[in-house]
């Protein structure tokens, strides 16, 4: 039987070291050793699958290396970065990506919040409704892309068939410049509005009820309660959801690949899709690495600005 | 991004010896293993891939019972990437990559496939082939149309020949197919006007793979244009010369208005679907992908093959200023990263496959052979109504460039032709952009940073 250990002490570290090992544990494995043993598989995986490739990509971004041509990588320093930042092709894709991100995230935020607000006011069937709304989010993007491709097909698709039965004309959803990008935004909104809805719903259910009760006593209108209680309290949480969605939308690839292949022409080619082409059509690995690093930097910088705004909002 | 990192990391960890030319295969087939062995191919997912697996497992195992043939397939749009990312990693899960004729330059320059010149000299009867077919599917540098350079090296052998066929509705436009391109357009125009709900034409317009590019290249060839001057590597001023401009004008302003609304992303399957559902008067598609059109289960044109054939006709492409047709099909190659036993088996398979009787059996099984005796055989000519079209087209074929920059050149052409067909660019701008951007790719060899943009 071991000696009793004091419950409090001025030197907690000493107490910890004085604690005898649990019965059955090897004496050669210290607490620190055990911690390292538990952490090391995950750490090694992280180093091998994330940190090393990132550092390797950073190195390649300063070279003219090509994965298929092989041979040694020659340092070109910032030439890849300069070429990307001054390329009209890249500027065009950046504009397309920006329109897509703003359009999709704004639409998803408005719809997601509206649905969450309506659900939060229901007392019956809230769980079932929430679960049903979450179904699109659980599907693979490739699957979503494929069935929307069939639905949006101008000749054989169900959407145009419905429009036809209403006496409306056929719309070339995926093959016209104006409609192709809108179609991408609509499909992404269909899949990811539930995500915003879920976060907004969590925020809405966390608003203390007594605030609404106090407002009712003061005979405040519905709009006044929404504007001065609901929105300010849910807003920070909603902004985090917007941040996540914006990052996801910024690196959109799957839907473009399946639905439009970047067409018509290159009018729906996003930055991620363009990186893919640079990386795998010409195997210009150095340029593609620099392109990828720049995209990561853009996300990091925008996220930092965004988080600062969020912190300021919380402080206020 | 993740896939790119994996590929580059594997390349970095692989045996990066800086090789830039193809290693040589032995002239004589090394001793074959008696142990069970799986010989793997890689191709894109379409009927000939499944036909090849069934045919090879049924026939090749008669001579090599310990061997199983596996034809791995990927979606057409991923075909190039699936092969070349593995080549980049210097490790392949396939022994025989089935390359498009235009992929050869990239694979040879990077040392990804074996040089089989000596093997062919010792084991293959090259005189049995139309020289251009042998050159198109295996020779690098590229042959001029209709010629083979006897001194050039060979890196592959023909697996499947192919070209476009014109598919026309006999019940709507008559038994006699149009003979010239202009006549074809006016017949399609009349057919569309006379048959509401049926479009005059259906052809490839998508911006993936080589869909829209092959369509423009075909019209360009028919109207007397050229894609480039291979000797001077000049594209700007060649593809967009007067003939090229006329071809683009015909394609966008005369042919496109005769297609169905929203057909701007159509490729092989969509064109077949339009024909099978009776929605097109005249269509163009690859012969090797046309077999399904005769299947009553997939067609609304008849309940039996004969009924369908009463309505559908297959003909060689109409001519105009020239009678050129696009070269399709693919060759077999040997991965430089395969184990030695598999490389030996691959060479043995190629030798077996190119025999006269096997080529005839391949023809009967639904394949399109390249040996002249097989092409002229009743086994081939009676196997499908479009096979005579192929036999008649062989002497008229023209291919694209098979230079290492092919993937980027075809992407430029695809996206710009697709843009013109869908109203995102004017025909003239699209063609001039193709010329300028493609020339930029060919000229960018000495540039250091920013390649690929």
Q: How many domains make up the 3D coordinates of chain A?
A: 1
Characterize the main sheet of chain B.
Answer: 9 strands, mixed
- CATH top level class name of chain A: Mainly Alpha
- Rg of chain B (C-alpha, Å): 22 Å
Q: Averaging pLDDT over every residue of chain A, what do you get? A: 90
Task: Please outline what is shown here.
The complex is a heterodimer of chains A (316) and B (453). With 316 residues, chain A is mainly α. Chain A is built from 13 helices and no strands.
Report on this model:
The complex is a heterodimer of chains A (316) and B (453). With 316 residues, chain A is mainly α. Chain A contains 13 helices and no strands. Chain A is globular. Residues 1-17 of chain A have low confidence and may be disordered. In chain B, the strands form 2 sheets. In chain B, strands 1, 2, 3, 6, 7, 8, 9, 10 and 11 form a 9-stranded mixed beta sheet that branches. In chain B, 57% of the residues are buried. The longest helix of chain B is centred in the N-terminal third of the chain and has 17 residues, at 47-63. Chain B is an alpha/beta fold. In chain B, helix 2 (47-63) links the parallel strand 1 and strand 2. Classes of the chains: A mainly alpha (316), B alpha/beta (453).
Produce the secondary structure layout.
The complex is a heterodimer of chains A (316) and B (453).
Chain A: H1 12-18, H2 31-60, H3 79-86, H4 88-120, H5 126-138, H6 141-152, H7 158-165, H8 177-205, H9 209-217, H10 222-250, H11 254-260, H12 271-280, H13 285-315
Helix pairs in contact in A: 2-13, 4-8, 4-10, 5-8, 6-11, 8-10, 8-11, 10-13, 12-13
Chain B: H1 2-13, E1 37-44, H2 47-63, E2 67-74, H3 79-88, E3 96-100, H4 104-109, H5 117-123, H6 131-138, E4 139-140, E5 153-154, E6 157-169, H7 170-173, H8 181-194, E7 199-202, H9 211-222, H10 242-255, H11 268-276, E8 280-286, H12 305-311, E9 312-315, E10 325-332, H13 340-353, H14 356-364, H15 372-375, H16 378-381, H17 387-393, E11 397-398, H18 406-421, H19 427-443
């Amino acid at each position: 039987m071991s000696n009793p250990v004091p419950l409090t002490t001025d030197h907690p570290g000493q107490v910890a070291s004085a604690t005898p090992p649990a019965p059955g544990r090897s004496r050669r494995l210290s607490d620190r050793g055990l911690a390292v043993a538990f952490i090391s598989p995950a750490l090694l995986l992280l180093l091998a699958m994330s940190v090393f490739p990132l550092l390797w990509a950073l190195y390649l971004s300063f070279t003219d290396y090509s994965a298929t041509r092989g041979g040694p990588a020659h340092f070109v320093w910032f030439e890849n970065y300069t070429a990307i930042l001054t390329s009209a092709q890249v500027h065009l894709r950046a504009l397309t990506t920006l329109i897509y991100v703003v359009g999709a995230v704004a639409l998803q935020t408005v719809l997601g919040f509206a649905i969450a607000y309506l659900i939060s006011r229901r007392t019956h069937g809230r769980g079932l409704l929430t679960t049903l709304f979450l179904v699109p989010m659980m599907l693979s993007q490739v699957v979503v892309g494929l069935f929307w491709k069939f639905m949006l097909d101008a000749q054989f698709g169900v959407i145009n068939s419905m429009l036809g039965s209403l006496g409306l004309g056929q719309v070339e959803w995926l093959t016209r410049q104006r409609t192709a990008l809108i179609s991408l935004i609509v499909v992404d909104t269909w899949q990811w509005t539930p995500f915003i809805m879920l976060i907004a719903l969590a925020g809405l259910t966390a608003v203390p009820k007594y605030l609404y009760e106090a407002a009712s006593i003061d005979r405040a209108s519905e709009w006044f309660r929404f504007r001065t209680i609901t929105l300010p309290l849910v807003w920070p949480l909603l902004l985090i959801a917007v941040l996540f969605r914006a990052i996801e939308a910024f690196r959109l690839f799957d839907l473009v690949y399946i639905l439009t292949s970047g067409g018509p022409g290159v009018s729906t080619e996003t930055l991620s899709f363009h990186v893919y082409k640079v990386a795998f059509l010409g195997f210009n690995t150095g340029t593609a690495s620099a392109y990828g690093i720049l995209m990561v930097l853009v996300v990091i910088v925008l996220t930092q600005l965004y988080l600062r705004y969020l912190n300021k909002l919380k402080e206020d | 991004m993740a896939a790119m990192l994996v590929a580059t990391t594997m390349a970095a960890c692989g045996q990066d010896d800086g090789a830039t030319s193809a290693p040589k295969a032995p002239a004589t087939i090394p001793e074959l293993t008696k142990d069970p062995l799986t010989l793997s191919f890689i191709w894109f997912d379409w009927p000939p891939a499944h036909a090849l697996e069934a045919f090879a497992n049924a026939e090749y195992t008669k001579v090599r019972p310990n061997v199983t043939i596996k034809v791995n397939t990927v979606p057409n749009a991923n075909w190039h990437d699936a092969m070349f990312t593995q080549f980049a990693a210097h490790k392949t899960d396939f022994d025989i990559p089935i390359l498009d004729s235009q992929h050869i330059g990239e694979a040879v320059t990077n040392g990804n496939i074996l040089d089989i010149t000596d093997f062919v000299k010792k084991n293959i009867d090259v005189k049995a082939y139309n020289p251009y077919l042998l050159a198109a599917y295996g020779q690098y540098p590229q042959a001029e149309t209709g010629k083979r350079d006897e001194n050039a090296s060979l890196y592959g052998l023909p697996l499947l020949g192919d070209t476009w066929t014109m598919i026309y509705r006999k019940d709507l436009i008559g038994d006699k197919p149009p003979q010239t391109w202009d006549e074809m357009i006016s017949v399609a125009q009349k057919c569309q006007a006379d048959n509401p709900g049926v479009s005059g034409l259906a052809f490839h317009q998508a911006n993936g793979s080589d869909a829209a590019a092959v369509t423009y290249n075909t019209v360009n060839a028919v109207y007397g244009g050229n894609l480039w001057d291979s000797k001077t590597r000049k594209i700007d001023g060649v593809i967009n010369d007067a003939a090229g401009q006329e071809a683009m004008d015909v394609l966008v302003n005369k042919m496109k208005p005769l297609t169905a609304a929203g057909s701007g992303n159509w490729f092989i399957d969509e064109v077949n679907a339009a024909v099978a559902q009776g929605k097109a008067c005249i269509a163009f598609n690859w012969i090797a992908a046309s077999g399904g059109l005769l299947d009553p289960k997939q067609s609304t044109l008849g309940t039996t093959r004969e009924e369908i054939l009463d309505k559908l006709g297959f003909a060689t492409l109409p001519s105009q200023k020239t009678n050129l047709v696009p070269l399709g099909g693919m060759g077999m190659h040997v991965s430089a990263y395969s184990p030695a036993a598999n490389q030996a088996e691959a060479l043995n398979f190629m030798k077996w496959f190119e025999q006269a009787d096997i080529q005839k059996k391949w023809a009967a099984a639904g394949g399109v052979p390249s040996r002249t005796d097989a092409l002229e055989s009743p086994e081939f000519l009676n196997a499908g109504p479009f096979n005579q079209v192929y036999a008649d087209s062989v002497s008229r074929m023209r291919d694209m460039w098979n230079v290492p920059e092919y993937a980027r050149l075809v992407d430029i052409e695809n996206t710009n032709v697709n843009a013109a067909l869908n109203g995102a660019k004017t025909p003239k701008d699209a063609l001039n952009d193709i010329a300028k951007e493609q020339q930029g790719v060919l000229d960018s060899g000495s540039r250091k940073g920013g390649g690929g943009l």
